[in-house]
Amino acid sequence: SSSLTEVTVFIKRLGRKTDLSNMAKTMRGVLNSNSKVTVLLSDLHAVINQGFLDVPGNLFEENFRNPEELPNNIELKCLKDLMALLASSTDIRVLLNCMASNLQAFVIQPSSSKEELRKLASDFQLRWNFLLSAVSKAMTLNYAGSFG
Q1: pTM value?
Q2: Angstrom distance (rounded) from CA 126 to CA 107
Q3: Which residues have C-beta within 8 Å of that of residue 55, sequence separation ≥ 6?
Q4: Where are the domains of the chain?
Q5: 3-state DSSP assignment of residue 80
Q6: Residue ranges of the alpha helices (H) in the chain?
Q7: What is the C-alpha end-to-end distance of the chain, expressed in Å?
Q8: Which controlled-vocabulary keywords does the entry list (predicted)?
Q9: Opening angle at CA 128, ends 43 and 72, nearest 5
Q10: Which residue pairs from 86-91 have beta carbons closer than 8 angstroms and sit at least 24 positions apart in sequence?
């Protein structure tokens, strides 16, 4: 029984690593093309600035209305930081380090226990997936050039 559990965990980890490897290969092709990155950034800014995202309120204001709300908008900060970096660097290691730094600062460090870390991590993952789905949907519905 314990061997079966270990095998299952190993298979899941291997699957995630394979998915990440495939995603990195795909992204390398995009990130190595300045024109594709420029179009992607333009489309992202258009989707965000024109209010096409199907999310409550204007979450992308330059100045958050209440600084105490920032921890509740970790995913927005991560997206904005990644977009800012894309303008100057397309090195995937730099982008991943940015994401890792934000997660360290806003999810891992504030956690005082394993249970709290699990809750913060799962909340972030849910909101991050929701945000990326909303961005993808908006880009698809608005025929963004980078989404083809």
Answers
A1: 0.69
A2: 13
A3: 130, 131, 134
A4: 2-144
A5: helix
A6: 2-31, 34-49, 74-86, 92-103, 114-141
A7: 46
A8: DNA-binding
A9: 110
A10: 86/37, 86/40, 86/41, 87/41, 90/31, 90/32, 90/34, 90/37, 91/31
pLDDT tens for each residue of 8-29: 878 877 887 777 777 777 777 7
d(CA 22, CA 38): 23
Quote the pLDDT of residue 71.
47
Nearest to 64 by CA among 51, 50, 79, 77: 77
Give the residue carrying structure tokens 């394993």. 114
pLDDT tens by residue, 45-104 = 888 777 666 555 444 444 444 444 444 578 888 988 988 988 887 788 888 889 889 989
List CB contacts of 19: < 8 A, sequence separation 6 or more. Answer: none
In the block, which residue shows the tokens 């934000």? 102
